[in-house]
Amino acid sequence: MDDIEALRDFSRFYTQRLGLLGQSYLGSGLGVTEVRVLWELAFGAQGSAREIAERLGLDEGYLSRLLAGFEKKGWIVRAPDPEDARRRLLRLTGEGKALAASHDKASRAAVGGFLGQMSPDARALLGDGLARVKQAFNPPEACELKDLAPGDAGWIVERHGLLYARDEGYDATFEALVAEIMADFLRSHDPARESGWIAWGGGRRLGSVFCVSRGEETAQLRLFFLEPEARGLGLGRMMLDACLTFARDKGYRELVLWTHESHAAACRLYDKAGFERIGRRAAQEFGQDTVIIDYRIDL
Amino acid sequence: MDDIEALRDFSRFYTQRLGLLGQSYLGSGLGVTEVRVLWELAFGAQGSAREIAERLGLDEGYLSRLLAGFEKKGWIVRAPDPEDARRRLLRLTGEGKALAASHDKASRAAVGGFLGQMSPDARALLGDGLARVKQAFNPPEACELKDLAPGDAGWIVERHGLLYARDEGYDATFEALVAEIMADFLRSHDPARESGWIAWGGGRRLGSVFCVSRGEETAQLRLFFLEPEARGLGLGRMMLDACLTFARDKGYRELVLWTHESHAAACRLYDKAGFERIGRRAAQEFGQDTVIIDYRIDL
DNA sequence: GGATAATAGTTGACGGCGGCAAGTGACTGG
DNA sequence: CCAGTCACTTGCCGCCGTCAACTATTATCC
Fold it and tell me: What are the E-state strand segments in B81-217?
């Protein structure tokens, strides 16, 4: 099954199994669209009817009627806009807010009941899948660095192994090297002077960075990685800064690292952050000819 | 954001961004429901109107009218069922089949165009996410064993690290041990007499199993793992059999393995497969008191 | 075997969803 | 000041889908 077929299949599956869920207009006597509009009024960005219609993909005429109905029921007031007499400012009344809140609560309960029937494993799998689908369309804006948790080290090995094989043609010995580095780190790193982090964003691991000791005064940055979809968004810079801050706090005087010349984006990042290139050496590693660049920076 | 909120959020997102896609009734002049019915007639299991109504969640009366329309347009014929005069056998005409096929093609093209705008990375992420969501509801029925590919070793480390920490309370040294085992295997296993496999099902990795040498005549089974959602479906037995077959083919005379007594399901599997318990020893490992069972079987 | 219930399907009535297009008053740019 | 645009409204209408009544057939139970 190719990915076109996979998406079509999922779409059929979704409309059958999950379609009813999100709206969960059950019991409220409200239609699906009414609920969506109400939700937009209550929790979405403030805006004119025009904007709401656009956001929800509704016909303006239809929305106008819906809003008239809302007003008649006392859920909203439509006051003339002093700045533009064509527009009308939409505002929920107390009653409207209460309705939105109660509906929100009911919907939460319905979804909770649905999830409650699933096993914890299936729920975890579902959450994981949803996060991925969503990120495929909305790149993450921010990420948070967290200390290594169980499974993180393996994830680092996997992503390094897969992406360096795909993008650089490295063979399996590279994945083995990363696995060994991680095994060493897990077993015998010095928590007082060394640390590793996973960048989390949108419910998913997006990258990794490690700061380890190369002597009393020298720290080394290793295993700096970002998922391809998360590159070019400034997350790398944030991770690098976090690592520099850690190294300074721990009393190191300089930080070194090496990377491959072919990683243009990474090299640009280090150059811009004030690192200086202190070496350039050719090497044959992992079944490929590579050029390694050594960097350092004063802390 | 907890998982209830995540699902609600996804649902909103889906109706906005992807809702139109699946149906893709664009241009055909057909309504969403008509397309679904047509699809069911063309590609779904054969059945009465009643069954189709049930499968698609439609009102019988409404469906009856739809089918009458289809017949009038020459897409289907409704012949009386010789076995049950209440029923009518539904069959697509040549014209109906052609319509379904052309619509299927158009829909494929529409989805393809949509996916074509995405980056390959995003597409991969999407496919991965969809597979997970779907498996959260439909457990995989079958799996296929594949040789180790880039990233697989890391995945094994991750899953062992995460699940043994969660279920058994093991500390990080367990993940380190698995990482080291994988590093050794990748670097220096004997491809002629040793192998490792990943079980794939539903577009996802579901488990792992390895067969390695412990001398000329003795093979060892290691890193036997199945995702929790994929347990109890007979996949484990299939993987075990594949490993036994491999060991026999390579000329080993016996296969040994050890596991923890707390893995009731795994122990049952080995017992049922004809393994004999040759040892039972207490050990303190990975921050926990454990009981290890040694197994062996003649090949 | 006959009353009764269940099943497959049809039909009419009806309400709500939502698209389309014409219309109204207000703003904007030349 | 006039044409064009914009935010919104309104009337019209078709489609989607529900409900309930109805027919014809089959299954069930005593």
Answer: 88-92, 144-147, 195-201, 204-213
CA–CA separation, A49 vs A35, rounded Å?
15
Angle CA B127–B7–B152, to nearest 5: 35
Residues 6+ apart with CB under 8 A from B168: B260, B262, B286, B288, B290
Encoded tokens for A124: 């975890």
Per DSSP, what are the bridge partners of residue A260? A292
**Chain B from 4 to 43: CB within 8 A of any A CB:** 4-18, 21-23, 39
pLDDT tens, residue by residue, A285-297: 887 888 999 999 9
Tell me which of 3.30.310.170, 3.40.190.150, 3.40.630.30, 3.40.50.1820 is the CATH number of domain B144-298.
3.40.630.30
B34 touches strand D (CB under 7 A): yes
Domain range list for chain A: 3-117, 144-298
Token code pair at residue B36: 């679904």
Asked whether the beta carbons of residue B11 and residue A4 sit closer than 8 angstroms, the reply is no
Please identify, in words, the CATH class of the domain defined by B3-117: mainly alpha
Q: Note the pLDDT tens digit of each residue in A151-194.
A: 999 999 999 999 999 998 999 999 999 999 999 999 999 999 99
Angle value at C-alpha B202, between B201 and B207, nearest 5 degrees: 30
Taking CB atoms and an 8 Å cutoff, what residues of chain A touch B39? 12
Q: Are A297 and A272 in contact (CB under 8 A)?
A: no
Strand C contacted by B123 CB (< 7 A): no
Do residues B170 and B286 make contact, with C-beta atoms less than 8 angstroms apart?
A: yes
